[in-house]
Amino acid sequence: MPFGMNSLSVFLRNHRVHLMFDTLSQLPADPILGLISQFSQDERSQKIDLGVGVYRNTQGHTPILSAVKQAEQMLLTSEHTKAYIGPVGDAVFNRSMAELVLGKQHTALERMTMVQTPGGCGALRVAAELIKRTHADATIWVSDPTWGNHIPLLGDAGVTIKTYPYYNFNDHRLCFEAMFSCLEKVKAGDLVLLHGCCHNPSGTDLNTEHWQALVSLALRKGFVPFIDMAYQGFGEGIDEDASGFRLMCEQLPEVLLAVSCSKNFGLYRERVGAVGVVSAKKAIVESHIASIVRGIYSMPPSHGAAIVAAILSSEILRPLWERELGEMRERIQQVRKELVSSMNTLGAEGQFDHIARQSGMFSFLGLTETAVAALAKDFGIYMVASGRVSLAGLNPSNINTFCGALNKVRLR
Ligand code: LMR
Prior knowledge:
44% of the residues lie in helices and 13% in strands. It has helices spanning 5-14, 34-41, 66-78, 91-102, 119-134, 150-155, 176-183, 208-221, 238-241, 243-251, 282-296, 303-312, 317-345, 353-357, 369-379, 399-411; strands spanning 48-49, 112-117, 139-144, 160-165, 167-168, 173-174, 191-195, 224-229, 255-260, 273-278, 362-364, 381-382, 388-390.
């Protein structure tokens, strides 16, 4: 007899059955993604979404880039098969991504294994599995604070995670000395996860001297840098944003990389990314990544990576993409300046200046969780509980409303 809810309850009363899912309890929503549904359930027309890191234009939309649309049109006619792509993905995509992150002339190109993955998350997870395979007792050191999904994503692979100090919430600056002295204690073979640019959540990046100091430290201590590059082109520019990573690949024998095309190509839902390893053991490393991928999801989806490959190898689409990426970057830089200037005009001089000197999509407002909750409840303004805002959610039609609400909450 098929079970409905009622007949199932009767059945369970009359039979002793072991139910495997009875041991589970309801989990809270994801701290970042849960904001999507909270925001959509809010019926106020003036509501503002500063939650998930998704680019929005001045109209509040997340458009498909013209370069992407044109590449998709090309693919519609040129794609000739839907046969399996294989665990390491598309060779043209992998080569193009290696050249994008390293630049076309970099000496590490010949040591770089690049493997297409389902988004930057897929890349991080595959890298964590690789670390576990090669160095089961290694620790991955992540910045405090770091992106909310780093610890679940890497930790669920069974790798130990520890944190190093990175951001001082009092002065809203990098605390490099504290970071450096913590990393002095890292053991050889451990991994140090660094954000290549546009640190998520703090917007506070390492400068060239910091990168150089970390290269020397890595050489001295024997740890391996693991760079998460999710925002290349959103900070200062495509090459500028990769400069720290390129420096490390020049001077160190081994570097790991997780790269995402979600933001810089606007391909969020297509899940496009790549895992990279710089090592002299290129073929061996690639064979292990292929076997890890085969054991988890067998092979990556094709469409998004085919778009990226088409754009990066086209003399027409690549400059178009670079222009569109530049427009996204400049818009966010402009929002940062306007936010600071409005808050200063409202009497909060100096309190938000850090936002104008930071880069990428995110900054902390420096609010308590209570203030963040009040912004959501009283004004329909949503952000991560830590007070991290995705600045692309602000535009000319909502920035004054936002600053007014922020000022009220700040003064309570
Ligand atoms: C974010 O930090 O908001 C984005 O990277 C989206 C995500 O998956 O968390």
